[in-house]
C-alpha cells in the first residue's frame, strides 16, 4: 500500500459506516432479468434448443444442474450464489437444481453482478476501448474502506487488489477472460460438453452451465446501453448518492422484470466486438455514449451574462463537456424557474433551469422516462442479436447405412475441430474416429451398428470470429 493510499484509508474510515454500498449497473434481479428475457424471446434461442440440441420444449425445457458432477470448489461457490437468488424472480432453480433453459440464462445475467463488485468489469469507453479507471483515486479509497467495514475485507485485501478499488478490465476483455466463469470461454467449453460428455447427467449439467454463461455475456452487453458504463462514470452515477444510481432505480421501479417494453428486431453485427464498438459507429457502447449524458459528466452550471448571444452560451457550455457528444444546442433561458429540456432523436436527454443569473443542468424523471421507453427496446435488440451471433453455427447430420455426414452452414477456417459421437441405449456417448476437418463440409464418419443417436460439434473460427456449433439427432 502506498503512503498516500494508507493516509486516505485512515481519513475516510470514520465516514464509511454512514455510506451504503451502491448497486452496480442495471438492477440484476429486475432489469437485467427482464432485458435478458425479452432478448431471448426475440432471438432464435428457442428454435436452436428445440431443433439443434434435441430439447423438445426449447426455452421451456427443464434442465438439471447436478452439483455432484462439478468440482467441489466450483459446486460450493455456484450453490451459494444460486441460493442467494430471489425465489420470486422466476429464475432461481429448485432445491434439486432444476430450472427451465430460459431461467438458467436469466439466472446467469443476475449472477454476473453477484457480488456487485463483478460489475467493475462491465465498463467500456468505446473511443479508447478501456474499462473502469478512477484516476484521482480518493473515491476508490473511500469505496475500498467501505468494503473493509461492510464486507469483512481486510486492509491487506485492499492493498493487494482483492477488494474493489474502482479499476477493472474492459467489458470486451472481461467477456474473453479465463477469470470470468460466466464469460465466453465458459460458454463455448460447456456447449461442447453438452454434446460430448459421456453421461447424460454431465451433458445436461454442461448445457445449464453454458446457458448461465450466455446470460453472463448478455449482462455485459446490456450494460453498454447504460450511459455511465460507456462514459467511465462510476463516481457521478454510483457514488453521488447513498442509494446508488437514480436512473437504474427509476427503471427498476417503473418496469420491474416483466413490464419492460418489447424488443426491436435482433440487431445483426459482423462480430462480437462490433456489438460494442465498430468503424461504422453503430456499436451499442458508441451509440449510447453519443446520445446520452450521465450524472458525472453533465455540462457545468454557469452564470448568465446579460446580452450574451445564445450561440456564445452554447459554445461556453459545450467547452465544459468531457465527451464531444451529445452536445448542447442554443438554450431557452427566457423564463426563470422553468425546467426545459435538450432533445435528441425525439428523446429528452438533459434538463436545465435558470434561476436568477444561474443556470444548472441535471437529469430528472422526465429524462429517465424518455430514455427508458425508447432505449430499452434497442438494448434488448442488441442482446437478442448477440444470442443469435453466439448460436449462429448450424450443423446438420445425415445418417444412412452406418455412415454419417456432418455439414456446417458456413465455412470453418483452418485449425478448426469436428467431432462426432454415437449414443447407446443407456445414453452413453462415445467419440467416433473420423476425418480431419480439411476443406469444406460435409465430413464423413462411420457409425457403429446399434447407435441410438449421433451428436456432433464444430469448434473454431469463421468469418465472424469464434464459433461453436452443436447438434444431435436420432439414427433412423
Describe the structure.
The protein is α+β, with helices and mostly antiparallel strands. It has three domains: 3-273, no CATH class; 299-362, no CATH class; 395-474, Sandwich (Immunoglobulin-like). The protein is built from 16 helices and 13 strands. The chain has helices at residues 3-16, 28-42, 45-52, 72-83, 101-111, 138-150, 155-160, 171-176, 184-196, 200-223, 227-230, 234-239, 246-255, 284-291, 310-318, 365-390; strands spanning 62-64, 98-100, 302-303, 339-344, 347-355, 358-362, 395-400, 403-408, 417-423, 429-432, 443-446, 453-462, 465-474. A hairpin with a 2-residue loop joins strand 5 and strand 6. Helix 1 packs across helix 6. The chain is elongated.
Provide the β-strand percentage band. Answer: 15-25%
> Biggest sheet: strands side by side, in what order?
3-6-5-4
Number of domains: 3
Spatial separation of the terminal alpha carbons: 67 Å
Shape: elongated
Q: Provide the gyration radius in Å.
A: 25 Å
Count, helices: 16
Major beta sheet summary: 4 strands, antiparallel
The low-confidence parts are 3-23, 137-163
What is the number of beta strands? 13
